[in-house]
Amino acid sequence: MNKKFKSAFLILIPILLVFAVLQSLISFEILNNYYTQILIVICINIILAVGLNMIIGFTGQLALGHAGFMSVGGYAAAILTLKLHLPFPIVLLAGGLVAALFGLIIGIPTLRLKGDYLAISTLGFGEIIRVLIINIDSLGGARGLAGIPKETNFAIVFFITVGIILIIRNLMTSSHGRAMLSVREDEIAAEAMGINTTKYKIMAFVMAAFFAGIAGGLYAHYFMFLDPKSFDFLKSTEILTFVVLGGMGSISGSALAATVLTILPEALRPIAEYRMVIYSASLILLMIFRPQGLLGTKELSSLKIFNFRKNNLMKVKKGGTKDVAA
Amino acid sequence: MSLLNAKDLVIKFGGLTAVSGFNLNIGENELIGLIGPNGAGKTTVFNMLTGVYQPTSGEIEIMGEKTKGLKPYELTKKQIARTFQNIRLFKQLSVIDNVKISFNYKISYGLFNCIFRLPGYYKEEERILQKSRELLKVFGLLEKENELATNLPYGEQRKLEIVRALAAEPKILLLDEPAAGMNPQETTELMKLINWIKEEFKISILLIEHDMKLVMGICQRLVVLDHGQVLAEGTPEKIKKDPKVIKAYLGEEVAV
Fold this sequence. Notes:
The complex is a heterodimer. Chain A is mainly α.
């Protein structure tokens, strides 16, 4: 019990510290609106990346339509706010659930496919969602949906992001997580060892869609405007880049890559015309020199860093006594 | 009591009849060998018994229950487990995780329990860890529990596959060429191991093998397949002398 408490403590303290620092910087207006916006976009991108990582990195299914689920969640949440004036948390949850429902409807037929075929069919579904939205007039059509109230702030986004990361982490260190990994490693062997592979593929897909839907709701209520064009194939590719670059199968890797790749284009703004050149060149270089991604399948965690330091200290101590004995 | 009963199994792939008229009865605590030339349909039989293929006609009963239409993962619940001819470990996962995965189908906690880390989760995980470690210890793999499966030497990978199958707590274990790629010394060790597993875990084993020394040495009963049909069935002594088997598979001079 003590050990559990200690590990919970080691997880919560750094999170609260980071939050306290960032929130006070925002409150005292040391970080202006522009920086706050970047922080919020980073968190939204992290949610999208860690979600897609569940499908691609952990379950090994190449799905390409993730922006579609984000838009479904975003529009669903926005409509609920505009038409029914429901409270924000309920709206967010509902957006996630609608996206999850879409994930289920799309997942059941497409997850029978493998590899390239799955990639192309999910890409198609992502585009279908976008085209549908453009053609539904009550959703604003191609003009976009305006007038959504601003409800999202840094604190909300931050804690939802942390919550989602913890949910995924807890899931992945359980039997259900191991089952997902076994699907990635060898589907035939997994089936033979009693894993219902279809169930776990759909579970990963639906959960990722749910998280993307929440990200969409947060996005809609921060920018107060939804444009179907911003959820196109390019957005899906961007999320995929986070996952691949961070290291497929690493939650912290996806989060790190989402952070770096959101900051990088903004940091390069001063050299406007070379911005995208440097951005893409760094992507290419990273893939050449570190094809497994920033973190590979490893995880960064405050627990491990703590244990690592402790072990090293112990080694040093042991080494020390040996020297004395010699 | 018969654990597994296969009656008149036939499977056709398009116009090709891969296996026809296959009958097999596995009783409790038996060790049966399935032998035959390459392409005779041995692995196809395994795939039918474990639900990978659905037989075109015929019936399989496991402990009196028909298994028609059941998927491989549902058959695991009927206490049948297998290994593969070309090793199919979860390569990028640790040795212990490979074993832990077999406990998934009877896991006692749900999603809610594991996301919110309720006591049920810790209790069950502890139980799975202990059981996995026990099994690994028995097979001498405990020191390597945290290594990736892909980094194990070949013989240990074969062993780990057997451990993984045993972790699913089967009554019937199907081994597909467990000695493939092993040297004579390793094969002798494996022979002893298989016999020991049968006695220790009180299970029945059906094994495909080309190594006649192994098969003749430990199996109580042999089934010989050729061109998808059962050529002969009986004790190793009987099979050794069967002229049809000698002609089709063993060769004129039996070197055993």
